[in-house]
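anyone else get weird line breaks when pasting these?? whatever heres mine. first is seq + tokens for prot A
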Amino acid sequence: AGDDRTYVTAMQHINKSIENGMFGLVFVGAFVATGVAAWLQHKAGRRQAALWAGAATLLYVVALMVTMGVNIPLNNQLAAAGDPSQISDFAAVRAKFEGTWVATNMVRTLLCTAGLGALARALVLHGRSER
């Protein structure tokens, strides 16, 4: 947890460091790859595997919606608080950010974990259809 200054400073640095092309590629690439997997399974006539991969895609889309609708705006608000050397009330900045950000991050984690489970099920079904 740490003190308020450390928390705000660390989160600002984390948010700034992930704003790069590689992170964006992985972030969007996971969605694209999952959707392509669902489409390929459907095209190959593997209905059950396609449904599970489609479910994974849908779960990831919901996670992206939460990210874009809640977490990114909160990250932007945190950045707008300014340079840590200029912030006078770290407790207030943290209080506006932390509770909602942590709660929605847990929702995103659950959605992505469920999506991974759905992809694992699709892979099992794909493997069975190959035999």
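and prot B, same format (seq, then tokens)
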Amino acid sequence: CPYPVSAGSLPDHMARSKRFPAQIAEAAMLEYTAQALNPLFTLYAKSSLREELHRAGNTAALDLLAHRLDTEPWSVYEVRRVLTPGRSDHCKLWHGLRCALCLKLAENAAVLPSEWARCKDCQTIRGHRCQRRDPLCSDSERKGTIWRSVRRVGTLTRRQACGSLERFASRPGRELEHTASGVPGYAFGFDRLVTVQRGGSFPAVERQFVAAPAAVPSKARGGFETAWRSAAGLAAAAAAAGERSAEGLLTGV
């Protein structure tokens, strides 16, 4: 891997990055865009590549990144996520594929296999998906599958994209969130507007608008809209009441 993450290899990696500032700036650009859509998407577990380059004194790479962020096209993104509940212990115990021994025991007991608890070996068998028809199969305290939709609105300059987001956030009840740069002297911060906050249990939904380089196409997992409506229900409908369409960001209407 050209981007080792272990603490022992980081100094060597930073030394190599000084020999290839353009290539490392490309990696930092990808990381910045990913982090704009999801703050957790940093190259390193406890810091970003930008911060490591700053610690290493690699101003050449940082200057290249700053130039690209100021000159390349930007956009405003609508990012929505659906977080489903995870499987409960009850579901893992009773629902799923069974080994030959458990099937034989169920047959001898004249019960359906689904009515015979799975042994520890059975619980390691993969490939079966419970339909979650039983409410006991879902655990609202466990995070399950994450569905995401990204919608890109327009192609703008950085100033225009950030200005559109600021205007969108200027309505009563909204607040623009700014994440500081983390690298002194460089405009590497992020602006986002969260219009639907994630709840503390699952299923949960969240919706936010962010300004970022126009490198990510609009995309969504198949069936996302159905999953969104199912998870959001009346709560999402109430939160979305009065929301402008994303296209309104560009027109100011």
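btw re prot B: The chain has nine helices and six strands. The longest helix spans residues 21-37.
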